[in-house]
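Suppose you are handed a protein chain with no further information: no name, no annotation, nothing but its sequence. What can you learn? This example shows the usual starting point.
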Amino acid sequence: MDNSFLHNKKLLLVDDEPELLKMVTAILSDDGFGNIVTAASVKEGISAVKNEKPDLAILDVMLPDGDGFLLMQQIRTFSDVPVIFLTAKDEAVDRLSGLGLGADDYISKPFLPQELLFRIYAVLRRCYKEDTPLINLDGCTIDFSRAEVRKAGESIPLTAMEHILLETLARSEGRIVTVDTLCEALWGDNPFGYENSLNAHVRRIREKIETDPSNPVSLITAKGLGYKLNTRK
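A reasonable first move is to predict its three-dimensional structure. Written in structure tokens, the prediction is:
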């Protein structure tokens, strides 16, 4: 899937840990995001939202002059920018506090880089709709906005897991995505032991997208490595 529409979005990172800011900036830059702004306090965060007008703000809860919850409350007096909390705290009360203020997501440290990217993509896609979220395969089209496959005049619905799996593969179109990466996308921080379940999802997807599921041409197995999705322009 072409992510250039999302990669053009401006992201604001607010955290008082320089090493974490550097690490997250590198993760985002390596994935294709080219417009990243950073801040290290509530005061700097408010100024950045006002002056930079980001498309997404990623806020730490613990800041030197307050906390992310206070920062979000102040931001909401003048901006509706989507917010993800990124914090070392993982207590239910903190999660509920953030989501109760209207945050779009909440990620606890330590986190997997791929998890962070998936969460960011999910929020951006919810908030900023692409005009044509479609990819063409051999003999069918996948419409991610409707979570369906269009094949031979028929609309075939995708399950939530199938949608995530196809979206992950489409993001690396034509390139191999490892089994571990796919399992992390589907099952989160502890993906080990899910390979058989992943294979089952792949079989069901092939039944929906392939003309001949026994001889796939779109969703290809890279033996011992993972899978790749061949798209058509």
